[in-house]
Automatic annotation (TrEMBL):
Its main location: nucleus. InterPro entries: ARM-type_fold, MMS19, MMS19_C, MMS19_N. Key component of the cytosolic iron-sulfur protein assembly (CIA) complex, a multiprotein complex that mediates the incorporation of iron-sulfur cluster into apoproteins specifically involved in DNA metabolism and genomic integrity. In the CIA complex, MMS19 acts as an adapter between early-acting CIA components and a subset of cellular target iron-sulfur proteins. Belongs to the MET18/MMS19 family. Residues 66-325 form the MMS19 N-terminal domain. It is found in: Nucleus. It comes from [Torrubiella] hemipterigena. This is MMS19 nucleotide excision repair protein. Signal peptide: none annotated. Keywords: DNA damage, DNA repair, Nucleus, Repeat. Residues 749-1070 form the MMS19 C-terminal domain. The keyword DNA damage applies. One of its GO terms (biological process) is protein maturation. One of its GO terms (cellular component) is nucleus.
Length: 1161
């Protein structure tokens, strides 16, 4: 049996927290395990008697008491209780402990409060606690009297939590109600005890206690008034800036707000008090106003019996709050006010609601004719009518009638805009309310006022839309039309009232079909007019954007209008056949993406209509594009039409992703080995050939295809895949010709090579975006690996398995202009599908052809695409298993350095492109020979300097090597590359035994790669890197190498400016020479002539200057003035000159830097 006195002594004398916890746990175990006849609880309490006051409370008998020791002794008891089981103590023991700890509130106001409150809180949670003891505890607590506010906040918080735990206990609640309810004398004493509380943490609990009392204890009105007076004194509450608390001002406000709203009997106090606060006018701050409004809203929401608590104050609330909107300027206050009025409307019923609505309508509709107050009146009206269907039905007619009347004689442009915005919101509110309330009675109510909306188009919208599409529109015309288009679109979206059981995928429109079509035509006429007339008036772009949004919503609600829109666009295209290329291109580039967004960015409820719109618009672009290519028109027109088709497929694909379609599902649940991808084209041609422009031409209506169109999202997704595949086959097969080796078709005659190349690239992008949306199973089903090789041409014979004829060559697929198509096919292809190309034996040959071309590229674009293709192939297949191929690439790099031809240099760069893909995926031992070979590239005397910059290709971020396009990127590949490649080059850049050219080349290689490596990777080598960056800049002068050096220096400055402090002089010299127009630089004799042209590039000079100025602008912020004072004069002169630089971005940066340096003193 443990000695409890010894444990108590050890606890009082101890100061190690872990040891104190062990002592408390040991004591608790002793109390739980000791025999009952040993009376362990009594021994436990007696163990602390040496530190307790005398029985008569006299502490002066033996001198001044040790308050610290007494506090520790009581803490010993309290902490032991924390680890004691709830069923250990008996009722008699809990009663004695309550008496013991309760006495501390009376006889010891210095050491006993915190521990006693904590102990009592634990005791109240025990099974043996008697609810009748709660009153005794409250009485003892009130003995603290004026000493309570003097306690530390942590002590007071413990007391508040004790009170809260007692009052939230159901047995205690029942006992107190039976003994003291409803006047509760103990509560009045507690109110007196806690009246001066100011600590935020304590107030949070105190307010919660008051809320509990008012909600659970049903106090008398007199007692309730006392409670109200207590928390009202804190309103409005704020949090002192010096408060050391995690409680936020919003937390305090919310807790106090709960006090106001928890008891409906407080209504006679709260509403007059809160509204009176608002009526104080300018004396109330914005934050207080918002708090008051939120409190009023909470009271309106929470009070029960609204006919007794809310309705008597409705008129006063409305009379005060309407001015917060009518005369308001602060948007947050206005929104909070509107929320209160909307909430108030929801609590009123029948005659009270009718009277309130009449009051609101009477006060507001007159203001609609005023330019100054129309906007505010509209917001007030909408806040009330949007609260419920009843309010909407009663207010819609007078509101709409007055708006129509005011629009006949608007006072200003702003007045017209405000009125059209109001009617738009009213229409949108009707849509929302009809969707939320579908019962028969409500639908009948809506039908009763529908007549007021049916004439809106001809009454107010038709003229406004016409102003947006007339010749030479004024500023007023454009602004009014911009405000009106969304309302017109919302009018098309209105649905007739439908009773339950009559739901349909194609609900009846409120307006006649003819009117809906007329509105859509008027909306489309706006962008059509401005694109055909090339309008340049201010605000036209905004008008077109807003009209497009409105038309899109209208077409979703009324899909039939889209066919007319497409037909208009097609007729317009035919009418431009004799026009200039620029006119045609501008028209297609303007209206093509617009139609794609309007018709395909969202699926209507009738999925079949959505599919038809996608097919019809895709077919339009396909037919026009095929005819344009056949007619030999400018490739610029091809590109514009292809952009329209790309947007159509993209928007439709995005719309499908918003549905619940499982993208990973295979077609029709079939296995990939039984799916016939070749059947897609024939299926699509037979079903939708005329519509898509893949078969016989002819007019096709929705009704003609209604039975064949899918009716579910899953069916729409499958159609999307099949149509996309068929279109790819159509276009790919039309741009190439040949048998086993494909070339571009005759239409690519080289008259506009840039546009032709752009068209091929766009066609590749179309393939990439389509393939990106396919799952791995779907890519396998569609045999994307085979189609990537034959480009949908049946004349190309593919190997079966790995059986490939020796004389078969695939160089044309990588090194000729058709590589743009191949790139598009593989960019978003999954790695498992790319592997199939290697399993056929073709992938290896493609890489070999790419790194050892037998002839030069047709142009720089073809060369660039070839390297991208090599990176993709090397990344998406496990090349670490292709030993011969890796050895071949390593050999090309090694042997290429022994040659001095441009051809050899190109082969090495192609090998670097392979490394860019390979090293992202694999970081094992097999990378070492290739990395070792690359390390030698910058050191080569002949090619090293020109190839050093090309090492950037290995680490530069590329879209086709991103995870979004299913590339494999190891998490730590950059760290591995830094230590294996960059760090050895850093050694070479500082090797004094190497030639100056070798050091410079290694330095360039380090800097161009470091631009893309995170600071944390090279942090330990900052000093060396800084020296290399400064040396390179000083040696080579302004150019791409200095630009790379400045980029690295800027990163170091951002992360570790102290490392740059010793190099300030050199850094300032480099920066000023980078943007100076008078600075001269003499190139070293050993510098190759090839460096001169790069340095002379105006774009590089501008970029270097801008970056240098940004660095200079940051120096005064990063370093103390004493480090910069000696350079102020020279820097100011250079910055003054730079403020007149020919490049605007450089001028702006110079002004910013000059401002920063002006503060150096």
């Amino acid at each position: 049996m443990a000695d409890l006195r010894q444990l108590a002594l050890e606890y009082v004398l101890g100061d190690d927290e872990a040891k104190l916890t062990i002592i408390a746990k040991d004591t608790a175990r002793e109390l739980e395990s000791a025999p009952a006849n040993t009376n362990p609880v009594a021994r436990w309490v007696e163990a602390v008697q040496p530190w307790m006051p005398n029985r008569d409370g006299d502490d002066e008998t033996h001198g001044a008491p040790d308050w610290t020791a007494r506090a520790k002794a009581l803490e010993f008891l309290s902490r032991t209780l924390e680890y004691l089981g709830n069923d250990v103590l008996k009722p008699s023991q809990t009663k004695l402990l309550v008496a013991f700890f309760g006495a501390m509130f009376d006889v010891d106001h210095k050491a006993g409060i915190l521990a006693s409150a904590s102990a009592l809180r634990k005791i109240t949670e025990m099974k043996a606690f008697q609810p009748s003891s709660a009153i005794d505890i409250f009485e003892k607590l009130c003995c603290l009297k004026d000493d309570f506010p003097r306690q530390l906040s942590t002590t007071r918080l413990a007391v508040y939590k004790l009170i809260q735990s007692l009052l939230t206990s159901e047995p205690v609640e029942k006992d107190i109600k039976g003994k003291q309810g409803p006047n509760y004398q103990f509560l009045l004493d507690l109110l007196q005890l806690c009246r001066s509380e100011r600590d935020p943490d304590c107030l949070m609990v105190w307010f919660a206690i008051l809320t509990t009392i008012m909600t659970k204890y049903a106090p008398s009105q007199e007692t309730l008034d006392e409670v109200y007076g207590t928390f009202k004194a804190y309103y409005p509450i704020t949090l002192p800036r010096t408060a050391q608390s995690k409680v936020t001002p919003d937390d305090l406000k919310s807790q106090l707000r709960a006090c106001f709203s928890c008891n409906s009997s407080l209504a006679k106090h709260t509403f007059p008090f809160l509204v009176g606060k608002l009526d104080q006018g300018d004396g109330v701050t914005v934050n207080v106003k918002i708090d008051v409004l939120r409190t009023i809203k909470a009271c309106i929401e929470e009070y029960d019996k609204p006919d007794e608590t809310v309705i008597p104050y409705a008129d006063r609330i409305w009379g005060s709050l309407k001015y917060e909107v009518r005369n308001g300027e602060i948007e947050d206050v206005i929104w909070a006010t509107l929320e209160v009025l909307k909430t108030l409307t929801t609590r009123l019923k029948e005659n009270d609601l009718r009277d309130y609505i009449l009051n609101v309508t009477r006060d507001c509709v007159g203001d609609l004719s005023s330019a100054m107050y129309a906007g505010a009146a509209g917001r007030l009206l909408v806040s009330v009518l949007s609260a419920s269907p009843v309010a909407f039905v009663q207010m819609a007619a007078p509101t709409v009638t007055h708006i129509k009347e005011s629009l006949r004689h608007p006072k200003s442009i702003t007045h017209s805009q405000d009125l059209y915005k109001i009617i738009r919101v009213v229409l949108q509110t009707r849509i929302l309310l009809m969707e939320l309330h579908t019962d028969t009675a409500t639908q009948k109510d809506f039908a009763a006022v529908d007549s007021v909306f049916k004439s809106l188009y001809h009454d107010i919208f038709s003229s406004a839309l016409a102003r947006g599409s007339k010749d030479g529109p004024s500023e007023e015309d454009i602004k009014v039309a911009t405000a009106a288009v969304h309302g017109a679109g919302a009018l098309v979206c209105q649905r007739a009232a439908i009773a339950p059981g009559e739901e349909t995928n194609d609900p009846l429109s409120l307006l006649p079909e003819k009117t809906c079509s007329e509105i859509c035509e008027a909306l489309f006429q706006i962008p059509l007019h401005h694109y055909t007339t090339h309008s340049s008036e201010a605000g036209v772009d905004e008008l077109i954007n807003e009209t497009t949004e409105a038309l899109q919503k209208a077409v979703v609600a009324h899909p039939a209008a889209f066919a007319t829109t497409v037909s208009k666009f097609q007729s317009l295209l035919k009418s431009t056949q004799g026009s200039s290329t620029e006119t045609t291109v501008d028209l297609i580039e303007g209206l093509g993406p617009l139609l794609a967004y309007v018709g395909c960015s969202e699926l209507p409820k009738n999925v079949g209509y959505g599919v038809f719109q996608f097919l019809s618009l895709s077919g339009l672009f396909t037919r026009e594009l095929s005819q344009s290519v056949a007619a030999g028109t400018s490739p610029k027109i091809w590109c514009a039409l292809m952009a329209g088709l790309e947007n159509t497929i993209k928007y439709y694909g995005d719309a499908l992703t918003k549905t619940d379609v499982d993208r990973e599902a295979a077609f029709n649940g079939q296995e990939s080995n039984t799916f016939d991808a070749d059947a897609i084209s024939s299926k699509i041609t037979s079903s939708y050939g005329s519509l898509l422009g893949l078969g016989a031409s002819g007019s096709v209506e929705y009704g003609d295809l209604k039975s064949t169109l899918p009716i579910t999202s899953a069916g729409a997704h499958q159609t999307y895949i099949e149509v996309g595949y068929a279109l790819l086959k159509h276009f790919f097969s039309s741009v190439t010709t040949g048998t086993q080796t494909l070339t571009l078709s005759a239409e690519f005659n080289g008259k506009d090579t840039a546009s032709e190349q752009q068209y091929l690239h766009m066609l590749g992008d179309l393939a990439s975006s389509f393939i990106h949306e396919l799952s791995e199973v779907q890519q396998v089903d569609l045999k994307i690996h085979e189609r990537s090789l034959d480009l949908f041409q049946t004349t190309v014979k593919l190997p079966v398995g790995d059986a490939m004829a020796v004389d078969e060559t695939w160089e044309w697929l990588v090194n000729t202009p058709v590589n743009a198509l191949f790139y598009g096919m593989i960019e978003s292809t999954r790695p498992e599908v790319i592997t199939k190309i290697f399993q056929m034996g073709v992938g290896q040959k493609l890489i070999q052809a790419g790194v050892s071309p037998s002839s030069s590229f047709a142009n720089a674009t073809t060369s660039s695409i070839s390297k991208s293709v090599l990176s993709i192939l090397a990344n998406k297949h496990k090349l670490d298993g292709e030993d011969d191929l890796l050895t071949s690439i390593e050999s090309i790099v090694t042997t290429g350095l022994t040659q001095t031809t441009t051809h050899a240099s190109e082969r090495i760069v192609s090998s670097l492109a392979v490394a860019a893909g390979f090293l992202r995926r694999y970081t094992g031992a097999k990378t070492k020979p290739l990395v070792a070979a690359i390390r030698e590239v910058p050191k080569n005397a002949e090619l090293g300097f020109s190839l050093a910059r090309r090492l950037e290709i290995i680490v530069a971020p590329q879209r086709f090597l991103s995870k979004d396009n299913y590339a494999t990127v190891r998490p730590l590949w950059l760290q591995k590359l830094y230590f294996d490649l960059v760090k050895p080059l850093l050694v070479g850049a500082t090797d004094r035994e190497a030639t100056p050219l070798s050091r410079a080349s290694c330095g360039i290689a380090v800097l161009v790669t470091m631009k893309h490596i995170p600071f944390s990777i090279y942090e330990e080598d900052i000093d060396q890197i800084l020296r290399v960056a400064i040396s390179t800049s000083q040696t080579l002068g302004t150019g791409p190498d200095t630009l790379a050096a400045l980029t690295v220096i800027k990163s170091i400055l951002a992360e570790s400016p102290d490392k740059v402090q010793d190099h300030i002089r050199s850094l300032i010299t480099i920066c000023t020479s980078s943007f100076s127009t008078t600075a001269t630089h003499t190139s070293p004799e050993w510098l190759p002539a090839t460096a001169q042209s790069a340095r002379a590039s105006p774009a590089v000079v501008a970029q270097s200057g801008k970056l240098a100025l940004e660095i200079l602008a940051g120096l005064p912020r990063l370093f103390e003035s004493r480090h910069l004072l000696s350079y102020v004069g020279d820097v100011d002169r250079q910055l003054s000159i730079a403020c007149g630089h020919r490049v605007r971005e450089v001028r702006m940066s110079a002004r910013t830097a000059r401002t920063a340096w002006s503060e150096v003193n």
